[in-house]
Specification:
Distance between the termini: 19 Å
Number of strands: 8
Structural class: alpha/beta
Bound molecules: cytidine-5'-monophosphate
Number of helices: 11
Shape: globular
Strand order of the largest sheet: 1-2-3-4-5-6-7-8
């Protein structure tokens, strides 16, 4: 299966393997990648990765590792050994943690993309103050994105609102993987500060994580095709 030339990553936010695969079977791996998160992976284990790979999907394993350097390096190596396309860690784990993860992939020449989460979008200024960070969220995002880049990360997870600042700070090729996307036709549900796919790409996002607008559509591939049209693909 050739690598899909697409910025679209569909979030398979399901509680078990059967439901996730039922959705995957309605998607085409030539048109999107898929994201597996903590709930699905914790319930189904690596079996979900095997099943998705067998169907031709490239997988972003969104487990946001955060631990001492040796432990995170081992977890990232394990993810890469499962053949995932992308895996992530928390930038808050620090430079040595990120460097250890990068070095482990380099040593084994594993091609998995390694990105970092900067500040969770659920964290407001008051939440940062409570954990001792007396700064506004965007400044902290910029600080951690720059640290991630210096520590060998391929990119970060960021909101589309942050993507423009991060493009200026870290350049075009540094990956900016952006959730909170809502196609112009869809409803907002619990996401705040959403952007359309076209606007997010224009803002500097390199990849778009999209869940419910596709997975809860009556025809997911038609919803995906509408998004492709919206971004001129
Ligand atoms: O359904 P929806 O498009 O909102 O799904 C977005 C996906 O991106 C979910 O898997 C969600 O956990 C994830 N995500 C997010 N906001 C962040 C980080 C991750 O919505 N800041």
């Amino acid at each position: 299966m050739p690598r899909p030339d697409t910025p679209l990553i569909i979030a398979l936010d399901y509680p078990d393997l059967d439901q996730a695969l039922t959705m995957a079977d309605r998607l085409d791996p030539a048109h999107c990648r898929v994201k597996v998160g903590k709930e699905l992976f914790t319930r189904s284990g690596p079996q979900i990765l095997e099943a998705l790979h067998a169907r031709g999907f490239e997988v972003f394993l969104d487990l946001k590792f955060h631990d001492i350097p040796n432990t995170v390096a081992g977890a990232v190596e394990a993810a890469a050994d499962h053949g995932v396309w992308m895996v992530n860690v928390h930038a808050g784990g620090g430079r040595r943690m990120m460097e250890a993860a990068r070095e482990r992939l380099e040593k084994r020449r594993l091609p998995t993309h390694l990105i970092a989460v900067t500040v969770l979008t659920s964290m407001a200024r008051e939440d940062l103050a409570e954990i001792g960070v007396d700064d506004d969220p965007l400044s902290q995002v910029e600080r951690l994105a720059a640290l991630s880049q210096r520590s060998g990360m391929d990119g970060v997870v960021c909101s589309a609102q942050e993507a423009t600042a991060l493009r200026a700070l870290c350049g075009d090729t540094f990956l900016k993987v952006t959730p909170g996307i809502r196609p112009s036709a869809s409803k907002g549900d619990d996401q705040r500060r959403t952007l359309t796919p076209a606007r997010a790409l224009a803002a500097g996002s390199t990849h778009l994580v999209i869940g419910r607008p596709v997975t809860q559509a009556s025809n997911p591939m038609a919803a995906l095709a509408d998004i492709e049209q919206e971004i001129g693909r």
